[in-house]
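Could you show me just one protein sequence together with its fold in token form as a worked example?
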Amino acid sequence: MQQSEMDFGVYATAAANHARRRIGPPAPDRDGLFDLEGVTIICGRRQCAVEAVGELFVDVLFKERTARVTAIAPGKWDPVSILIACTWAHGNRVFEVDYATARPTNPGGLDEIRIARVVGADGIRPYLTKRSRYFESEHGVWAPVARLADAEGLRSFRRAPPGKPTWAFRTLLWGHGGPRTSDYAVRKALRALEDAGLVRIELGPRGGMATAKVTWTLRAYLAPERLDPDDEAAMEMLA
């Protein structure tokens, strides 16, 4: 079972949006898991074939390489495991989140760690492992190393330490007016997040990603904090 890769660059016209809708990303269940059909679609968008081995295993194949994915429950697979298998099958590196050094800030209530796990599973480094090549101030202002003259007058600027988001991951999370889809790493991350059900992508008028509208889904946000049972009862009485 195999499906041609879904590459945003292939669909460059408005007429092609119909084809993209027909073979668009799969929809996860309420637990964020995918059945065999969903696994096949996600893998097909990366030119990988899928062979089912019962209800608990699937083999992901690309050329001569094979990676096996174990189900969370019979017939249900986790999107991160699927993406990791595709990345390994292609011979590429997977970037796991180092919980000891990561410093998530969850901007706007986003579940930053969940997003980082999906992005890292698809081969995009979410967090720095050494000091960055850009400068950062206490107020979140950036200045790339190539623009040292802009940072010389501000003593608060420092190179971002390990554990902070990489440039691509930070652009994805804090992009003004939506993520900057002209960057390859950001586009690749968006495709992984779309496959995992964390974003919705509406292509631009001419079918391109440069003018696409990207919207975070509810699954991308942290779950609201629950009150204690006594507090919930009190709130119901006030209502």
Observations:
- The radius of gyration is 20 Å.
- The first strand starts at residue 49 and ends at 53.
- DSSP finds eight helices and eight strands in the chain.
